[in-house]
Amino acid sequence: MYYKYSGCSGVPMEGKCCCLPAPTAAMPSRYSAAVSQNEGSALDVILVEQPDGSLASTDWFCLFSHLPQPSEVAVRINGQPLHASLHAAAPFEPASFEGGAHIPPAGVLRTLATSPSLREGRNEICYTTAADGASVRASIYLWKKGARAVVFDVDGTVTLNDVVGHVGNVLDQSFVHRGVCELACQLDARGYSLVFLTSRTLLGTAGADRTRRYLFEVAMDSETGYRMPEAPVITTRHVSTMTALAHELGGQSGKFKTAVLQSLDSLVSARMPRLFYAGFGNREKDALAYLSAGVPPERVLIIDPSSLISARTSSTAMAVADAATKPSEATKPSQWLTYTALLPELDTLFPRLSTEERFAETFAAHAAKAAQGIAARGI
User: Per the database record, which ranges form the LNS2/PITP domain (predicted)?
Assistant: First the structure.
C-alpha cells in the first residue's frame, strides 16, 4: 500500500487524503535565477560515499560563456570555500583542476568527506572566476553508501513526448505524463536516489539550467499539484544545439547514456549492491542503456505516448508500439496505464528503504509543495 500525506492529521495515512496542507512559503526560485544569472553552465556533481567513508565523484564540469583572459576559478559549496581551484583557459572550454583533471585531488575529496558544510542530498556549488567575477551555479549531491538510484529520461518520459518538453521550456507549461511527479516524490520519500539523464545540451534554450528550471519549478502534476523532487540533472556537454541534434540523429545519444550510467555505476564499491535499481525511459536506447548499467529487466520501465508503461521482462513484456494497440493486454502485471497506476504497487516494486519517520517527513514536505502549486496555479 502506498501512502499519501494527510494535511488534517499531520501523519501519513493509507489511500487518498481529504485535503492537503496549506501553503507555507513561495515556490523555490533558485533555478530561475540560475537561468538569468549564470555566465556559462555546469553539470551537477554526484558524490558517492564509500564503505570506508571516502567519496567517489563524477566530473566537476564547468565552462564560462565569457572570459576576458585565462583565469583561476574559485569553488564554494554551500557558501564555504573549497581548498582547490580550477583553471579556465578560454570561453566555452571546460575549467579543470591541476593536470587537466575534472575531479578534485584525492586529498580535497577526503577533506570534503568530513566537512560539516556538506550534507546528504542537494548542496549548492558555485564557480567564480578571478578575472572578472563571473559565476556559474549548479548542484552537488551527496549519495550515502548503499544508495539505490532510479534514473529518469526527460523528453518523452517525464514530458508527454520528445517535442513538448522543449515547448514547455519556452512557454512555462508543464506537459508531463499524469502522475509522474507524484511517483518521483514517492520514490524520493522511500529513500531512492533519483537522477535525470537527458541528451539535451549543456547550454541554450534546452540547456542544463533551463532543464533544471523546467523540472523543478515548472513541471507539475495537474491533478494533485505534486512537483519533481530535486535531483541531479545530467546533460550532454554540447554547447551547440546543432551539434546536439547531429549527435541525436547520428544515433549517439544511446551511447552517451550508456557511458554516463556505466561511469556512475563504477563509483560504487564492489562490496556494495549495484547502484541502479530501476530506470524509466521511452525508447529502446534508454532500455539498453539501463540494462548495461545493471538494472534488472523487470525494472526497466518504458512509457509510450499514450502513457502506457511496460516492464521489459522476457516472459511478459512486448514492444511498446504493440502494447498501445492491444488495450486488453494492459491488465498484465508488467503493464500499467499511467504512472498513477504504479502507485498502489510501490510496496512490491519499490520497497521502502527509508525509515517510517524519514518517509513521513519527506513526503509531508512534498505534499506541502503540492499545496503551494495548487494555490499558485488555481487548480
Answer: 150-312
